[in-house]
């Protein structure tokens, strides 16, 4: 592994790489050999953190439906067991289920690894790591990759003596059924149906779209035992070629597919998951999307019923209408940085300071709740919606009555401005600084205070009536520009004014703004 670039595998608090050849200009860097070393590195890191010898460690390993998953997972497990660690093999699982294996009675694994690259293309894969304290942080991943780069692993027995004779065992478990049963119990107890306690979803037709990822279990292991009719559910079987659509609730084709299925089958509700089930979105009985700001508003309304005056932490690109909606419900909207770990850690920080925050949610559908370990779990999020759906039906109401007062923008667009220089962060910082100065010269633009990334500007002219946010991407040489307007053609008006600002700047590809 000499000259191998281990740092290139880091993607924030995850590891991501190219696992399958065949895509132009994408060299394979996540091989079984690399995966085996990563298994050893995590076991060693966990041993150091927990102050247990590796032979005392129990680590669960699972994967999503990616084609490279079985081989890479086997390599990771072999890496762990070669150092004497014990492994629980969960086969296909969800990312949140892997965390739950660290806190569920009868398992309580010391650590967990999920092989997934979320919504990325079929040729990619990656690893997410957990302990009972939650997902690992960015620095933890850096430390694990440093151990992998050194590649100097010793096998130690329980007394700490170095030995070459200990090999751990791999034991198969059907943990996804254990995990699913937790939702069944929660929904039954929370709805507390007076006539159908065991089947509180009786009389409801609910369609699941798993996108051929790992979320198909939710239809037959959660919804059916609760009495729901799942006729019309689609793409439940794991298939790493993702033949029907990208498993991503932010993808327009994926959302159109679940919306059409709800309309076609006259369902009461639709659910769509991403590949590894840490994100989700929903569809109402009219085939209207419940994602992005609408999803945040819906779960916020539920949280604020249960925990009045809670702070709701979101990422930076949420709409002005959502902020007003949360404030109308006597909640506090705290708009923070993009990145699911950022919003989760911010909610945790606020709670530690004594400011109650029961929900951290990103516009992408990563939603984490204080009542559930601040775990971003798409299945938990939709389970909360289903509890409210069943209660609404009992009361003769509609679930979406909760967001009747949500003001939604007339237009919303994201433009991705590419930076064509090597030192793109310096360029990006300069562009944001210059835009700040430019915005202050515009009489009908106001810089929004307390913004935690980039620059957000309120556009008050009648023909604009909206806002824009320019920020640096978390990992790529890109500046995403989000624009929303409450009037028709308002996005174009704002974009054209920004175009005049961007044009003289060297090193930017602003072709996206010309569309």
Summarize the helices and strands and which ones pair or pack:
Blueprint: E1 10-11, E2 14-18, H1 32-50, E3 58-63, H2 69-82, E4 86-92, H3 95-100, E5 111-115, E6 124-131, E7 134-135, H4 138-150, E8 170-172, H5 175-191, E9 206-209, H6 217-223, H7 252-264, E10 269-273, E11 280-283, E12 289-290, H8 292-306, E13 311-314, H9 320-328, E14 332-335, H10 340-352, E15 357-361, E16 367-369, E17 375-376, H11 378-394, E18 411-419, H12 424-440, E19 445-447, E20 455-459, E21 466-470, E22 478-485, H13 490-502, E23 508-509
Parallel strand pairs: 3-4, 3-5, 4-8, 9-10, 13-14, 13-15
Antiparallel strand pairs: 1-2, 2-6, 5-6, 6-7, 10-11, 11-12, 15-16, 16-17, 18-22, 18-23, 19-20, 20-21, 21-22
Total strand count, please?
Answer: 23
- Assembly category: single chain
Overall number of structural domains: 3
**Secondary structural class:** alpha+beta
Task: Give start-end ranges of low-pLDDT stretches.
Answer: none
How many angstroms separate the termini? 45 Å
The largest β sheet comes out as:
8 strands, mixed
CATH class of the largest domain: Alpha Beta
Which word captures the global form? globular
CATH topology of the largest domain: Alpha-D-Glucose-1,6-Bisphosphate, Chain A, domain 3
Number of helices: 13
Radius of gyration: 24 Å
Provide the CATH architecture of the largest domain: 3-Layer(aba) Sandwich
Could you name the CATH homologous superfamily of the largest domain? Alpha-D-Glucose-1,6-Bisphosphate, subunit A, domain 3
Mean pLDDT score: 95
Helix content: 25-40%
Percentage beta strand: 15-25%
